[in-house]
Amino acid sequence: MRSLPLELLEELKSALESAIGRRAIDTLPLDSATQTQLLLTGRLDFGFVWVQPPPPLRSLRVITESLAVVVPANRKFSALERVAPEDLAGLKLASTVDPLTVPADLGPYLDYLPRCDRVNSAVLGGTHLLVSSGEHCAFVPTNSNEHFLLSPETRRNILIKPLLEPAPVLTTYLAWHRETEGTAAFQPVVSAVTRIFDLRPLVVDTAIPTERSVFTNDS
């Protein structure tokens, strides 16, 4: 799954496990392209992706967030009210995912960030820590609170700045293979997600054939 705020991730995982009868759910930090391939091959049951997936995958939009940028706390960025693409020239991108999989809205900014250092997504605050060294930047949702988990010294060395309006946005979709819709766990999982994100319940397309594969939560 994509990076979600820690408290939201814990709430979501608890709700999903309760929805499917207290069975354990494995969560994997994977970029959107990898999730799409695993969903298509049946090795992943559900995913949270940044782009609406192609058929035979189906999706439900769950959250749209505006993006900000984490930059070194130097004089240049301290003086800026908003960060423009050209302001990032000379920095490297710190990212947990392949930059080619990020939202298209970030294209103008990535043009000034030809070099990218990948960060292990299992390391909490890893991108912020790399930015604190003074040579990188990273993009985060404006409502991200990941920086509060950092040490005071690291927080002093970074700034979180808004981007030029209209700010790039990150839309996250819950994605699944249409064959999943015939399984016993499908509707409880989708209902749990809609409650967490305060969405209207999903109406399943009844024209889809009824023969489905069996849901497993350990794929």
Structure description:
The protein has 219 residues and is of the alpha/beta class. Helices cover 24% and strands 21% of the residues. The chain has seven helices and seven strands. The protein starts with 5 loop residues before the first helix and ends in a 23-residue tail after the last helix. Helix 1 runs antiparallel to helix 7 (186-196).
Topology readout:
Layout: H1 6-19, H2 32-40, E1 47-49, E2 57-72, H3 75-78, E3 92-95, H4 107-110, E4 116-118, H5 126-131, E5 136-141, H6 152-156, E6 158-162, E7 169-177, H7 186-196
Parallel strand pairs: 3-4, 3-5
Antiparallel strand pairs: 1-7, 2-5, 2-6, 2-7
Helix pairs in contact: 1-7
Quick overview of this protein structure:
The chain folds into two domains: 6-63 and 170-196, D-Maltodextrin-Binding Protein, domain 2, CATH 3.40.190; 65-169, D-Maltodextrin-Binding Protein, domain 2 (3-Layer(aba) Sandwich). Helices cover 24% and strands 21% of the residues.
Q: Give the SSE string.
A: HHEEHEHEHEHEEH
CA-based gyration radius? 19 Å
The proportion of residues forming helix, as a percent range, comes to: 10-25%
What is the C-level CATH assignment of the largest domain? Alpha Beta
Q: Which tags fit this structure?
A:
alpha/beta, elongated, seven-stranded mixed beta sheet, 219 residues, 7 helices, 21% strand, D-Maltodextrin-Binding Protein, domain 2
